[in-house]
User: Fold these one by one.
Assistant:
Number 1:
Amino acid sequence: MKQPEQTKEAMFINLCDTTGAALEHLGMALGWDPVQPRRFGGRTRDIDLNAAALLFAGTQIIDVVYHEQLSSRDGSVRHLGDSMTGEGKGDNEVVTVDLTRIPPQVDTILFLVTSYTGQSFDQIDNAFCRVIDSTSGTEIAHYNLSGGAHTGLVMGKVVRAANFWRFEPLGATIHAQHPVEAVPHMAPFLTTPQTSSDT
């Protein structure tokens, strides 16, 4: 079984196993508990969290995969289906990434969670998201999301390196209910393309 190699000196995880072989398939999984019924009756609003992957070339957004667009244009990133209530045990939404098929111009993939129905995370029980090696099932990173007045979380980013990809945990809170709303908040987490100056 492949085991991701974590580089502790820097705050990133090289997405390769202990032999140096690059990992090829990642998953970002999201789960949460459904809203609890009120003790004395009355309607309660369902909790709908969304998992998303945003693909960038430098600071330019190239593609977005989320509940309204279940696949990137080239099929390398896929959303496996929308849960609108959090019903069921374990992962409620999963986004898969085939790193071998990511377009060459894409250098960053941001993993994002938003509260589509607008509840802040301090109103949501047992919310979590995690990144896994989809081939082995090994968990690379795990976040407990419950708590806080925010409605969105930038979980982390997958960044292209010389011979492999690496995962950088972020855990940055934002206020956004929809992935499209979140795009303007992504600038601090992106690499500005370098330009060569004339000599």
Number 2:
Amino acid sequence: MKDIFPLNPHTLTPLYPCWQMQKIMIIGSGGAGKSTLARELGKILDLDVIHLDAFYWNPGWVETAKDEWQIIIQDLIKRDSWIMDGNYGNTLDLRLPVADTVIFLDFSRLLCLLRVMQRRWQYAGKSRPDISSGCPERLNWEFCKYIWSYPITRRPNILQRLSNLASNQQVFILHNPREVREFLQQISQAKG
């Protein structure tokens, strides 16, 4: 079983230098800050950022058909390098094997719900920068239930999948915004 390392300044030992990270997945509950982390990490490492929401959602919040979605993911993962944010559990089997680094934002559900509510007001009536145009920010009961139940319904499966990754794949589990800041600072310093 693979060791999974939460971020700890005293035990963070990357398998290889950060500039060799070429295919980075960022996963976690809605509202955890996946897209924000992806953008910031993309700037530091000079890697293209792929926001899966922008590829999945069509104007008017219309979902992409399942077979078409699988093809889109297969095309995206063929790129030489990327930072890819988004859960989309039905595509983890395609994405996890090709990622050299996985960052799991394992945040409290209360923080995630608060952030989603803030995001709803910040982008009221307009689309976020990390989603397709024509998808104005929304908040509904179903999404709130998804976030609230994430630690129970999704987290165990994700941790199991992460523990089964190959020994040459790095996994970082970040539990709060402070750990994200420390992670970004360490990557930035290592990048020089």
Number 3:
Amino acid sequence: MKVLDLHCAHDHTFEGWFGSESDFQDQLARGLVECPLCGSRTVRKALSAPRLNLRAGSAPPHTAAASDAAPSSSGGPAAASARPAPAGAGMAPSSKALQAAWLQMARHVMAHTEDVGRGFAQEARRIHHGEAEERPIRGQASPKETAQLLDEGIAVLPLPLPAAAKETLQ
């Protein structure tokens, strides 16, 4: 199993797990590796030190420090774990904090809202007019539909979430 530190075109850092280098290259070529923050499929490997476990049952010396690190995301369809990226993996501390806060917010939105899909504008209107039960919803609306909802006094917030966020966020 190869654990790779990855960066997207917007320099978000995340980790991906692959069976081999050729698995990574194949999935990358087919557009299956995407940034869990922005959905970018322009992904590159970052330089990283190899992780070696020379004795069974012994933890690597950096384990204690890694548990104190800010959590990072997993790498889309190819990732299998949400282990933090190594310290100093190319992002300034403020960027890491912003990435962690965004992921926490995205997890909260996904866990506490109902996905009404492309019928978002219609369902938001039904809720606003008392024709449907009031509840937190999310879905897709065009920029035109969003502007119309706002003009009608219906509070909405465009929140772009990548496709990977619609699955369980690690």
